[in-house]
Design goal:
It is built from 15 helices and 23 strands. By secondary structure, it is of the alpha/beta class.
Amino acid sequence: MENTNQRSYEKRLIWEADSSIFLNNPSTFVGVAVFALAFLVHLSLSIRIGVIGGGISGSFVSKYLVDYDLDCSLEELNIFDPNPLGEIATKEKSSDSDWQGSRVGTYQLEDGRIVELGASVITDQFKFIIEMAEGGNLTVGEPFTTASVEGDSGKLEGMAIYDGDGEVLLNTANTTSSTFYDMVWRYNLDLLKIFKITSTAIHRFDMLQSMLREYDRFFFSSPMEMWKEVNLYSFTQMSLDDLCDYLWLPKELPFWRRLARGQGSLRKELLESLMLVNYNQDNSQINALTGLGSFSSTSHSKLHSIVGGNAQLISSAFDQARRKREVLCPDTPNVVSHSSRQITTVVGSLSGFEVYATDGSMVGEYDIMVLAAPLSMARVEFLVKSHVDESVLQPMPLGGLVENPDEGDIPSDHEGHIPLPHHLSEAATRPYTQVVTTLVRHVELQLEHFAIDPEHVPRAVFTTKRGKAAEYNVTAISQISAKDNLFKVFSSQPLPLDVLQLFFGPSVEVEYEKTWGGYHGGATPDYQGKGDTTDFLLFDGATGFAGHTNAGALYYPNAMELTFACVELSAMGAKAVAKLIAQRVEWVRASESSDLGEEL
């Protein structure tokens, strides 16, 4: 706060001293214009960047920004998040659900074992995640090993798909044949069709990751531009159901396949249950790109987990940013920091942004802001000062002003703010889907209730859309550890004790419950069958000054997850935004780009 006041005071002194000189000059108009330009150049010599949200996006974008700042021009890089970065929750120490940071959740049991409250595995395709993990000396281990102990006998294997009303559609537990061959027989040509198109999508996704890794090439303004570059855009504009129709994957089995034993509907069983457990949305609600990404984790990639919990990725990325800054700029203070203040208001102007906390106090002034939390649940009010009267504040036009190509000048009703090329998508402010994680222990899965054969008890039970509706909106039940019969349950709302006893018997004990996003959020975007999103640049108050100022830009890496949400896409959004900022402040200049997508 002291530094902020000092910087404001210095700016005012410069302005008052220099303006008095120019105003006494006979060529007043020219003098003031030259002064204004010089003042803007002065402000652009050092860069102050504020990041709201300390999850994967916020911590990773900080690391990537430091990578680009080779001339040490960063004056401040501050992550605002009320909780410690990468905090691991315990029964006594629970993170605030209503904060603006990560939706990665890791829980530590009293005996020290770790449980992932959300997704527990990563794949070989998570290249940015694995790179950050290895850079921070984290261990990438075997999947489904969190909360396990040495000699954890009784650990179950396989999975079952439950369709409600006592009907199990598929159970791979304790089968004598290979699960892969069981799947091929059950879904035959349908499985090969989805496998082939997923392989194509993975190849194109690999190309996009390679493009983002290019230091001075491929600067993408939006997620849609990225998907178009690698010919995956069409998958964002259709639902998974639409794709299944295109591939002639039937919802119900044709009569001739019903004559053969062990046949099933890939679309109704495997695909639908995967979408529900990963996103709490069915095939008609999920977009095709997200659907293929979910399927790829079960069919094309080797699975891994971060030993010690995914939350370590956040603190590791932040620590790597600080260490990298010390290496690059050993003679200057380390400007990478974390503030526990929760931000409620951001006021933009030509010179940048004023940032205010919950108590109304101004906590800093920044040239560039990064919103690294979902816009729909961040609970931040974005305002701008009127160009007529700076004491008047107006809602910040987040991507809402679209330039008319027939207009050469800025319309007066734009309040002096240059319009952005695209409207803010309705999907950007749409509430996320609600998911609740419940950890229970000392349980006995009620096999009769789920019509499971005692000789074939699976590690996980997934539900179809019908099964979810029949079982209190539960999408998955999975064993975490056999030591104390620890299970994890995903559902759409908190589960009362009588429901848990119905599933697990009278001895069930609730260890922990997490409502993702609290009362203001959710776990994943509500896709509504498409992947509509917005540009990474939400607001630009400094456009129009011919490159003489870099201030006034608000970036949004979370635009990426509106097309496909997972930790790797959060990392890629952070990388894309860091590159755009680096280009804006001239830490890097774009070189000639060869089209790596030509082969696609």
